[in-house]
Amino acid sequence: MNWNWNETSIDLPHSFENLKELLNIICRKENKFSQYEFAKWCDNLTMAFDDDETEELNEFDNIAFGIAQDIECQWDLFLVNTYSLEELQNLDLSKVKLPQDWFIEWLKQLNGK
């Protein structure tokens, strides 16, 4: 099988526990990676699990899978709803930041709160 993996500077295996750890780092504002890198990492995580495998996941993993999908989707939606096509063509994506509240909410969901 040939995956279309995104290159990312985040050198962590694609696991749901690492998703939680990365969200913790972002919520503490200790990330040395851009949110763009994180969105690509989340996209890679979702690609690592196809629809057939998600049915076999436990409840935590299913929630984490949904959150990873949401992060990747919200990143794309934020870009198209915030910037014009011309701006996007010249935008340094590593400088784009989603609202911090979103990351806090995703972490709360992941923690079951």
UniProtKB/TrEMBL annotation:
Name this protein carries in UniProt: Uncharacterized protein
Origin species: Metabacillus rhizolycopersici
Lineage, broadest ranks: Bacteria, Bacillati, Bacillota, Bacilli, Bacillales
